[in-house]
Amino acid sequence: MERVYNFNAGPSAMPLDVLKEVQAEFLDFNHTGMSIVEISHRSAAYQDMQDDTIAVLKRLMHIPEGYHVIFMQGGGSMQFLMHGANFLKTRGGYLNTGVWSDKAMKAASYYGEVYEVASSKEDHFSYIPDESTFTVKDGTDYVYMTSNNTIHGTEWKTFPHVDVPLICDMSSDFLSRPVDVSQFDYIYAGVQKNVGPAGVVVGIIKDDMLQKARENLPAMLSYRTFVEHDSTYNTPPVFCIYFVNRVLHWIENQGGLQAIQKRNEKKAAIVYDAIDRSQGFYTGHATKDSRSLMNVTFNLGNADLEKEFVAAGARQNLIGIKGHRSLGGCRASIYNAVTEEACQALADFMDEFRKQH
Ligand SMILES: *Cc1c(COP(=O)(O)O)cnc(C)c1O
Q: Which member of 91, 141, 196, 334 lies 3.0 to 4.6 Å from 244 by CB, making a disulfide possible if both were Cys?
């Protein structure tokens, strides 16, 4: 078996060590004589594992007192609706920096007024707006943002300070760098970009924020249900949470989020340098100061050449470098599990392809 260089945007590359560990213990989870997919979510073996997952996450992110960690299903898209159901009473402000925040704004509008606090839409979402351009209206329940824009390849380098609660979709750069959790009132992340298989969303919710959540919601739409029942009101996605557990331990063994960030910066520089030294053969989509460490987006001038680029890459085991259908061009997603070696292989290929064309 040959493993390829995987640049898929999500689901995406997972650490090889974790895949092997999961494989090795798949038939017998923690001496239960059963697979993790066979044990009861009401068993002590499961509960211990879930508790440990939360404990490791709290260590890694330095989550302060006064926050709860919850696990939900329905992906990021369900959160687009759920944050509105819980928190939108009068109006919600959105930092519209890409397709995902746009969708969140539309979904939440079912519950009240939504508006843009700032947007980079007019420039094809190629940059992160400056805080000085924000307008937050009176009576705003929260400001909502997307820390990393998976499709357009931009990322907030620092997080804005607003006078209302801050909600953040961290799906595509979750655990790629340290963040100050205390700046946020609600963080969520679908795990399938950086920390696990598709099927679970991690939520980190501040207790004060939970107090503000709308009452009288259907149980499965209410964050209270997940906090009050420790994410086991119904059957949680047992396998996904277990897999996330193993990835969290892997991150801890790598030296934690500071070490991961350093590595991600080095990896991203390898690929961005290949764009920058190409003298316009490759054009980056994001402005330089807004470049994502997770998703490198670029184009090659014309669609035929891009097609050839993607096909030639695939022949060298470079997989997943076609851009998102809504933006076109090319994209290399270089999440935590993508190695420096893979980034170097891509950069070498980009140099070679440029010389040939
Ligand atoms: C992929 C992605 C989503 C959508 O996640 P689904 O689980 O497919 O609904 C939402 N937000 C961001 C930032 C993403 O990258």
A: 196
